[in-house]
Amino acid sequence: MIKKMFADKPTRLLMFFSGFFVANALIAECIGNKLFSLERFFGYTPHPFSLLGEDGLTFTLSCGVLLWPIEFIMTDIVNEYYGPKIVRRISFIAVGILVYAFVMFYFSISVPADTNFWVGSQKDAGVPDMQAAFSSIFGQGMWIIAGSITAFLVSQMLDVWIFHRIKKATGERHVWLRATGSTIVSQLIDSFIVLYIAFKIGKGWSYQRVLAICLVNYSYKFCMALILTPAIYFIERQIERYFGADLTRQMKHNAMGKANEI
Asked: Average per-residue pLDDT in the chain?
């Protein structure tokens, strides 16, 4: 039975996408604590600007945004070939893994650190206290964790819903519209929810500040959604070549049938 399962092409591909989807989400959360300058990344000096009355804004982003566009591409691909029920299951598994990971992070922070060697082992590298460094990197605030996980789950469910509503209206045409359109809308909701929970509720930010930073972050995600649209077509061509035309049509038909379960 195991050999038969691994010989099934759709099963093999789904296992790959599921594993990569969960791993990508976990890595994005782990590296999300670091902020980087998008302007400096492209070799420009940041020039602060104002938006909605908030001054001093720059394109300072979480490193997590480097990976989230890939997550939404995978969502659309799985949606296209396996249907919304499978996307929801993978999303819930990813949320469960993220919650488990954060529990383990906090547990590892709380266990007694080795003071004989480890705590001061990187003084020469400019890190005088490894325990403090470890805690600051992995010990994200509870509001940030709650905001990030909630935003991820809500945006995933919204992406699934919009994707299939567009596909029902357009059929097999306009792949770019359902893939990019669903991502553009869901990313806006994702950006707002994480900032609202983490900083409006968690730190008392004003709605004005939340919206201003939300729009700055979303502008990056919007551009990435457009830039990565050709990747959807490339991946779908590779999948059709892997499955063959008949199996591809069958899977897309079955996926649309499952859309009625939304």
From this structure: 89
